[in-house]
Amino acid sequence: MSTFPTSYSRSPTLLFSQNSLNALGRTNFQLSRLNEQLSTGLDLLRPSDDPIRSATISILDSRLEYNDQLLKNLQFAGNSLATLDNALGDAKSLIDEAYGIALGQISTPSDRESRSGQAIIIDSLINSLYGISNTESIVGYVFGGTNPGSPPVNFINGGYNFSGERGGLLAALGTASDVPITLGADNAIGALSNRIEGSVDLNPDLSDSTRLVDLNGARDLGISQGVFEMSFNSGVSVSVDISAADTIGDVADIIEAAIIQYESDNGVTILGPGGVGTSGGSLDFDIAGGSLEFTDNLGSNVGKDLGIVQDPAVALTTLAGTGIDLNPNLTWTTSISSLSGLGGNALDDIQLQINGQSVTVDLSGATNLGDIRSQIEAAGTGIRVEIGEDGTGINIITESATTINQAMSISEVSGGNDTATLLGIRSFASDTPLSVFNDGRGIEISDDKDFVITLGDGYEIPINLLPADIATVGSLITAINTQANAQLTADGRPTTQFDAQLSATTNGIEFTQSFVISPANSLSISPASNSPAAEQLGLLDTTSTNGGDTLISEDRAKVRVINLFTHLLDLSEALRNDDTLGIQLASQEMKVSLDELIQSRALVGGYAKRIDTEVVRQEDKRIFDLSMRSELRDLDYAAASSRFSQLQLQMQATLSVIGQTQSRTLLDFLG
Question: Structure pTM?
Answer without folding.
Answer: 0.79
